[in-house]
Amino acid sequence: MSEYIDKALTILKEHSFRITKQRLFVIELLDKSKEALSAYEIKNKLQTKGLDVDVVSIYRIINCLEKNELVHKVLSSNKVKKCKLRHEDTCKKYEDNHCHHLLICEKCNSVEEIHCAGISNVIKKVESNSKFKIKTHNLEFHGICNACK
Questions:
Q1: In CATH, what number is assigned to the domain containing residue 88?
Q2: Cα separation of 28 and 3, whole Å?
């Protein structure tokens, strides 16, 4: 098993979630995928492997994984991508200036997670100019990855 799968299963167990076959199938699929996947894409990929998981269950699994910070939702496409858990040990995810941003390639559909600490200055400026207290934000960059240039 990969490091991602091991950590994901550990996190789920720590939060009292059962490791069902369906959850394991979805986690393994997300671990192997270089691109973000929708619930229907997950269902289709599992079906090609002879595994039958209904879409409602897949949405529930995705929701569970998202709540446990094991996947990132790509808002522009309503897809999910596994989180790079190896950075989470040193990641300051509970600090005010923490954020994850996504780089989305328009050619190969790859999704890369990046951390961008400098965004806190932009947030402060927006708050100051707008008199609006920002609690959270989502930022996705769409373009061409280095492999597709």
A1: 1.10.10.10
A2: 11
- How high is the mean pLDDT of the chain? 88
Q: Say if residues 18 and 41 touch (Cβ distance below 8 Å).
A: no
What DSSP assignment string belongs to 30-96? HHH-SB-B-HHHHHHHHHHTT----HHHHHHHHHHHHHTTSEEEETTTTEEEE--GGGTTT--TTST
Residue 59 has pLDDT above 70, yes or no: yes
* Helix 21-32 with 39-48: angle, nearest 10 deg: 100
Note whether 104 and 128 are within 8 A (CB). Answer: no
Residue-range definition of the domain harbouring residue 31: 3-148
pLDDT tens across 112-142, in order?
888 776 788 888 999 999 999 988 888 899 9
Q: What is the pLDDT of residue 90?
A: 43
Give the total number of structural domains in the chain. 1
- pLDDT tens per residue across span 84-118: 765 555 444 555 555 678 899 999 988 888 877 67
- Cross-strand pairs, 79: 74
Separation CA 109–CA 120 (nearest Å): 28
